[in-house]
């Protein structure tokens, strides 16, 4: 599900319904391609199909590398497996780590932290991206990497997701949520144990 749109994969390709002014839905795209995964985000949707990341929606018009069909294929990715969509860019996790693609009108690109090992997750708030690696959770945007002192204490983070300005991390069976940017829109939630 993307903002104001819902998408599904079927034999005919990628099907989306919703607010046409925001996502271009309803539409049927990628017909004939094997779609392996689908990711929704800020007024946009991306799909991994046959080793490529295809994105549709309002984010497309802000990125470099787009065609005239409101469609972009993110370049230079090897075996992509996860995609995160924010309001100002898209990040993808592949065999080489995380690559982020920001607005073509931006004067700076995402400051992806260097020297992280075994990156296994990526998520995006409206303006920041976060990754999960052996070194823990690291969040960044087009101007900086945010200090980890803004994050709750974590022992063994396993997974992360983001919604609007909040990032939630699963850490030893507990959900820990925070705003990496220190946004006053978000009230940090108390850690909550999760049950199966």
Radius of gyration: 17 Å
Q: Count the strands?
A: 17
Mean pLDDT: 82
The order of strands across the largest sheet is: 4-5-6-7
Element-level helix/strand string:
EEHEEEEEEEEEEEEEEE
- List unreliable stretches of 5+ residues: none
- For the termini, the CA-CA separation is 24 Å
What does this structure look like?
This protein is mainly β and 196 residues long. 2% of the residues lie in helices and 44% in strands. It contains one helix and 17 strands. It has one helix spanning 20-23; strands at 5-10, 13-18, 27-29, 35-41, 44-49, 52-57, 71-73, 82-85, 89-94, 97-102, 121-124, 129-133, 136-140, 157-163, 166-171, 174-178, 192-193. A four-stranded antiparallel sheet has the order 4-5-6-7, with no helix packed on it. A four-stranded antiparallel sheet has the order 14-15-16-17, with no helix packed on it. Strands 1-2-3 form a three-stranded antiparallel sheet. Strand 4 and strand 5 form a beta hairpin. It is globular. The mean pLDDT is 82.
């Amino acid at each position: 599900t993307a903002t104001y749109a819902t998408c599904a994969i079927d034999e005919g390709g990628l099907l989306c319904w919703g607010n046409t002014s925001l996502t271009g839905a309803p539409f049927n795209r990628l017909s004939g391609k094997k779609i392996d995964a689908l990711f929704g985000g800020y007024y946009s949707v991306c799909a991994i199909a046959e080793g490529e990341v295809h994105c549709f929606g309002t984010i497309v018009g802000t990125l470099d590398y787009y065609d005239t069909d409101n469609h972009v294929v993110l370049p230079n990715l090897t075996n992509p497996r996860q995609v995160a969509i924010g309001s100002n860019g898209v990040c993808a996790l592949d065999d080489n780590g995380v690559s982020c693609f920001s607005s073509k009108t931006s004067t700076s690109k995402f400051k992806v932290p260097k020297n992280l090992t075994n990156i296994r997750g990526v998520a995006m708030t409206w303006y920041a991206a976060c990754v999960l690696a052996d070194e823990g959770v690291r969040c960044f945007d087009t101007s900086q990497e945010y200090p980890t002192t803004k994050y709750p204490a974590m022992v063994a983070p396993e997974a992360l997701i983001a919604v609007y300005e909040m990032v939630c991390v699963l850490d030893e069976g507990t959900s820990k949520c925070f705003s990496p940017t220190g946004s006053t829109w978000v009230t940090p939630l108390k850690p909550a144990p999760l049950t199966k």
